[in-house]
Amino acid sequence: MNHLNEAVILLLGLYLILLCRRVSGDQISGKGVVNLAHRQSKWTPLMQTSANLSDITSIRSSFEFRTFDPEGAIFYGDTKEGQDWFVLSLRDGIPEMQIGKADILVSVKGGHKLNDGAWHLLELRSEGKFVVLEVNNKEELVVGLHSKLTEEELTGKIRLAVGGMLVDKQKLFHPFQPEMDACIRGGHWLNLSTPWDTDSTWEPRPCFSEIKRGSYFPGTGVAVFNTSDLPGLKTEEAGITVEIFGSWTGTALSLQSTGFQYILEELDGHKDVKEVQLGLKEGSESVDLPREPATLTFTILKHSLVVNSKSELETESLDFFTMWKKGMLLTFGGMPGDSEATKSTHHLRGCLEKILVQGQVIDLDRALYKHAAVSSHSCPTEAMNELT
């Protein structure tokens, strides 16, 4: 990540002050429906439990799993306080198992893509020196390993975790992005029936009954990017383009730096237009934009900002290309610093089916900050129907 300039650091600092977290975790059943998204912690597991190995009669766990997310942590287990560990994740939608055991590190990826939005039955089991992943009652991955340094008989505790890891991410043979916008249900974890401890930052939210691809904003929360981390300028003539596809109301995006802010929002009472607001130290101005709910193209030129090739705001005093490269806050869903304790008419509500910057798809899991209420990869189909 590039270094933020002082202005962006100040803006982000003020924004993060407004965030609130739960001070303690709860206990939940591992058998119900659990949404793995909607939390601030990245690597800390959403839920975890432990048991004495002497109480375990079957090294077998199964659960149903559903996601559109191509990458993230699903299931983790370890013994010897993390000296021997295992993690199941997705990479490019394909299952990947990584195992650390004594002097051995193993990473194996294979099988069918699971990020199709359908429910899949996953089973993980140990068969001697082999770990087996079964998907929908068919073997997808079989990993075998052996070390002369390991003990044949294990004692002590076994730890299980969902949605993260209990060991340092530096131990991974093949690093990945841990955030997982997914749901699990019907879990059978070894032969354990004890409740699971949850991450203190997690706020339980229901799983959507039917989903489609996209990023869902429920009317509270934003996703903030530093522009210096995003694709940059190719040619001055073409500028820098941000494209949004979907259906929504409220603030689509904002651009902010010291003494400058740009807000693109649909205001109350303007059902047929969107209003672009440009605020500068010297004053502010706005123009009306015909509403096109299916797509929005925001183009940044050296001294001007253009929306859908129809509305242009110019300011010779600012060099937007230089500002983009040095770092501004590009925010989807609202303005950094807005109160997020309750839903706001200014915050975006709806589904952004796709976000492109310079033609590249932007993953909200890579944001500098994303509010826990925002779903990175799934939208409820019923919410889409309400907005169309």
Automatic annotation (TrEMBL):
The keyword Glycoprotein applies. It comes from the Eukaryota. GO terms for molecular function: steroid binding. InterPro entries: ConA-like_dom_sf, GAS-SHBG-PROS, Laminin_G. GO terms for cellular component: extracellular region. Residues 35-379 form the Laminin G domain. Residues 1-25 form the signal peptide. Gene3D superfamilies: 2.60.120.200. Transmembrane segments: none annotated. It is found in: Secreted. Keywords: Disulfide bond, Glycoprotein, Lipid-binding, Repeat, Secreted, Signal, Steroid-binding. Homodimer. Functions as an androgen transport protein, but may also be involved in receptor mediated processes. Each dimer binds one molecule of steroid. Specific for 5-alpha-dihydrotestosterone, testosterone, and 17-beta-estradiol. Regulates the plasma metabolic clearance rate of steroid hormones by controlling their plasma concentration. PANTHER family: LAMININ G-LIKE DOMAIN-CONTAINING PROTEIN, SEX HORMONE-BINDING GLOBULIN. This is Sex hormone-binding globulin. The lineage of its organism: Eukaryota, Metazoa, Chordata, Craniata, Vertebrata.
